[in-house]
Amino acid sequence: MSNLQEKCSALGISIPSVLLPQKDDMFPVWAVVACDQFSSEREYWDKVEEIVGDAPSTLRLILPEAYLEDGDTEERIAAINGTMTEYIEKDVLAPLAPGFILVERTTPHVASRKGLLMAVDLERYSFEEGSRALIRPTEGTILRRLPPRMNIRRGACLDLPHILFLVNDPEKTLIEPLYQNREELDEVYSFKLMQGGGTLRGWHVPEERLLPVLEALEKLVQEDLLFAVGDGNHSLAAAKQLWEEKKSGGAASDDPARYALVEVENIFDPGVVFHPIHRVLFDVDGEHLFQFLTDQLGIQAEHGTPEAASPCDGTHTLGFFLGSKRGKLRFYSEEPKLTVEMLQEALDLYLEKHKSATIDYIHGEDSVAELCLRDDTLGLILPPVDKDIFFSRILAEQVYPRKTFSIGEALEKRYYLEARKLVRE
Questions:
Q1: Which domains does the chain have, with CATH numbers?
Q2: pTM to 2 decimals?
Q3: The pLDDT value given to residue 143
Q4: Greatest alpha-carbon span in the chain
Q5: CA distance readout (Å), 206 to 169, 188, 212, 352, 394
Q6: pLDDT confidence band for 41 (50 / 70 / 90)
């Protein structure tokens, strides 16, 4: 085994032969946003259908969650698997030499977000509680969300990533040196993404340039943790479960299904922006809920601008919207817990006792304000996640509470583009 292979094995990495569209003019309609975005906005996906038309596109290789309630999921999955085979047989895609891809994304909100596409070993990933695996989730895995994703991947011959991994690299030793010397690399794509998604550029990093990359990764391992799953955890968990199925059925140790394509990003890249996910409760008596939160958390309300703030000296601050009322809620706790953690525990207890009330998890303060114009709807604004303690929190507490953060807005999520074969020739 070569030195490069030894390092890859120790780091839970594989060097993929990435597949890309054969022709440059295919890219703008080939790439579409992650399937779990705009799930309540079917008009977005209807517009994608219109843009794509009959052209080859990853739209034909995924199942947008906006369509899950249509009752034709099995037919769609069969069509996806058939189209994957068709694209391979018709040479719609061409392989690059083994290597990584340096990625740069611009969006309407950030000037540059850099990443490094690679394949990772699912043997080194675990979503089990208390796991000390090299690759770990950042939030709890909901097992009931896995079967639809598993059904799609089970018959797939292509691996298409929208999964984002995070590394803790404050000194910017991994991705940034490659980006600074990108002129030395072959550019493999540069184009504008559809539907206002910004632009995407990519440079091939061949095997002969990977040793310094792997050495940088070795130095980023902290207490057996290297990668935290920032986005796409349930897709990765589905791939893991399917690999376990294949392995128990006698699959070879180097079967392609053992690996998954992901994009790795540095949490300290300025383009990696963490947004809190806010809470909106419907069909509630706002004053009664305030009293409940006072009893549970000791909140004190003050009217004014509904701003949240990071905890300071044990004081937690939330913003709130309730009809024409708005302001801040403050509470004090000596417990070393996040604001969202304590709030969610109280809200879960409230919802358990008040079955008519419902909750939704909302991105963006403007959206919360629009939803909370009625007196029976309460919006709670959460503070952002602190990047400086992100990895130490995972090491200490394993995972974040569900629906704590989102990386970027919906339009900034990863677009499907690169592929890898899941079956042998």
A1: 3-272+408-421 (no CATH), 274-404 (3.30.1760)
A2: 0.89
A3: 76
A4: 68
A5: 22, 12, 12, 54, 32
A6: confident
Q: Which residues contact 70 (CB under 8 A, 6 or more apart)?
A: none
Q: 211-225: b or e for each residue (b if 16 or more CB lie within 10 Å)?
A: eebbebbeebeeeeb
Task: Kindly report, residue by residue over 79-109, the tens digit of the pLDDT.
Answer: 999 999 999 999 999 999 999 999 999 999 9
Label each residue of the chain as H, E or C. Answer: CCHHHHHHHHHCEECCCCEEECCHHHHHHHCEECCCCCCCCHHHHHHHHHHHCCCCCHHHHCCCHHHHHHCCHHHHHHHHHHHHHHHHHCCCEEECCCEEEEEEEECCCCCCEEEEEEEEEHHHECCCCCCCCCEEECECCCHHHHHHHHHHHHCCCEECCCCEEEECCCCCCCCHHHHHCHHHCEEEEEEECCCCCCEEEEEEEEHHHCHHHHHHHHHHCECCECEEEEECHHHHHHHHHHHHHHHHCCCCCCCHHHEEEEEEEECCCCCCCEEEEEEEEECCCHHHHHHHHHHHHCCEEEECCCCCEEEECCEEEEEEEECCEEEEEEEECCCCCCHHHHHHHHHHHHHHHCCCCEEEEEECHHHHHHHCCCCCEEEEECCCCCHHHHHHHHHHHCCECCCCEEECCHHHCCEECCEEECCCC
